């Protein structure tokens, strides 16, 4: 039984201008007014969240994000506003700094508490066989982190992100693939969204043991980071036991075949990549979480209709809020051009998407808030951009803390 098509996000405000925002909001992201101030000197200060009420410009950005989040009841879209604009993103360890740490309301529904504290320890493995959230798209991993598999008709599999370690790849995907009717030897492309270890650690296992001819794609700045990490590890070989050295090296991708570069004079860029005879992916360099963060739009099929799935690789980095706003605008423009109408973050706790994935596993006819429609994806990205413009301005104003 395949999921019944029930879209969220079919309503939309009549464009950003229709919210009658102050003229300052129309300035390009990254202008002087939106540049973040230096982070506080105390290295152990976590995301502090709000210290004082917003000043006018930050409030205008936040109000715009709130208005967009309230257009309909899509819970994934509303999460974007609540976490990035209202509460921040903090660790329970913040209790040591005197912050008011609260507990989760319900870990089956959301791993981020009402005051913005993230409780990673509650994350569970996804159900056996992963979650098929569209006719040819699956999520494998845990409530916290996963990878996406898309099966292109007649052309093999596309993998987006690669988990944390080879063992995670084995237990969370390879051992589960057969139950989903998937063969890892059919993987043709692997898109690595950013260079953090929890997104690339299983890449070499896929290349060496299952798909030696697969093409690996990454943002050029992060590909350079990974190459430097491998070179540094080899220079420091004597600092590790043989077992430690092999384990560390195995988690660093040994080759990137296609690097997505920034446009000259810019921090963002895009590359179209043919992933099948009739299928093309759009890989977008959009820094924020890392200097080479990349998101991907890939064609998918659901109930006889073609859709465009936007796979977002990770969030959070308040110090880069101004850059994140620029990147969100760039991705929003391309998503509109390409007709992206489905959205999923490979950190499934973000947006509380894991709870909706579990609901779809239990009942494929359940409402699917990931199937947002084009208008919903546009709002999701505009909320994220305005939230980060607000965050950047709050750092300038001194009304929020960073790390």
Bin the strand percentage.
15-25%
Distance between the termini: 46 Å
Low-confidence stretches: 1-46
Radius of gyration: 20 Å
Structure description:
The chain has a 7-stranded mixed β-sheet with strand order 2-3-4-5-6-7-8. Strands 9-10-11-12-13 form a 5-stranded mixed β-sheet. A two-stranded antiparallel ribbon has the order 1-14. The chain has 403 residues and is of the alpha/beta class. A hairpin with a 3-residue loop joins strand 4 (146-152) and strand 5. The protein contains 10 helices and 14 strands. Helix 2 (75-87) runs parallel beside helix 10 and helix 8 packs antiparallel against helix 10 (373-397). Helix content is 32%, strand content 18%. 51% of the residues are buried. It is globular, with a radius of gyration of 20 Å. The chain has helices spanning 56-69, 75-87, 166-177, 197-200, 203-210, 220-235, 242-250, 321-338, 353-362, 373-397, and strands at residues 49-50, 131-134, 137-141, 146-152, 156-160, 187-192, 215-219, 258-260, 269-274, 280-285, 294-302, 305-312, 342-345, 400-401.
């Amino acid at each position: 039984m395949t999921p019944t098509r029930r879209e969220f996000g079919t309503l939309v405000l009549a464009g950003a201008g229709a919210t009658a925002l102050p003229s300052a909001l129309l300035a390009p992201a990254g202008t002087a007014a939106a540049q973040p101030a230096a982070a506080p000197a105390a290295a152990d200060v976590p995301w502090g969240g709000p210290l004082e009420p917003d000043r006018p410009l930050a409030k205008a950005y936040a109000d715009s994000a709130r208005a967009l989040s309230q257009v309909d009841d899509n819970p994934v879209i509303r999460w974007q506003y609540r976490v990035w604009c209202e509460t921040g993103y903090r660790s329970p360890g913040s209790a040591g700094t005197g912050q008011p740490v609260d507990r989760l309301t319900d870990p089956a529904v959301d791993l981020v508490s009402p005051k913005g504290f993230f409780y990673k320890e509650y994350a569970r493995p996804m159900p056996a066989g992963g979650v098929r959230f569209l006719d040819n798209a699956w999520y494998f991993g845990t409530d916290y982190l996963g990878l996406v598999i898309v099966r292109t008709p007649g052309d093999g599999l596309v993998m987006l992100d690669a988990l944390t370690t080879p063992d995670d790849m084995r237990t969370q995907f390879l051992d589960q693939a057969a139950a989903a009717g998937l063969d890892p030897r059919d993987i043709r492309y692997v898109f690595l969204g950013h260079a953090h270890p929890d997104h690339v650690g299983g890449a070499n296992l896929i290349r060496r043991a299952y798909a030696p001819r697969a093409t690996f794609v990454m943002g050029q700045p992060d590909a350079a980071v990974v190459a430097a990490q491998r070179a540094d590890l080899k220079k420091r070989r004597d600092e590790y036991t043989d077992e430690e050295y092999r384990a560390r090296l195995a988690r660093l991708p040994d080759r990137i075949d296609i690097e997505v570069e920034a446009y000259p004079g810019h921090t963002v860029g895009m590359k179209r990549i043919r992933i099948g005879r009739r299928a093309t992916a759009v890989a977008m360099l959009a820094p924020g979480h890392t200097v080479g963060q990349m998101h991907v739009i890939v064609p998918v099929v659901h109930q006889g209709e073609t859709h465009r799935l936007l796979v977002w690789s990770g969030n959070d980095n308040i110090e880069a809020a101004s850059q994140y706003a620029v990147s969100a605008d760039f991705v929003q423009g391309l998503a509109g051009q390409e007709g992206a109408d489905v959205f999923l973050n490979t950190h499934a706790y973000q947006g509380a998407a894991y709870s909706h994935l579990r609901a779809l596993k239990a009942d494929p006819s359940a409402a699917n808030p990931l199937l947002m429609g084009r208008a919903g994806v546009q709002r999701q990205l505009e909320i994220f951009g305005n939230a980060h413009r607000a965050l950047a301005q709050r750092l300038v104003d001194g009304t929020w803390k960073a790390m």
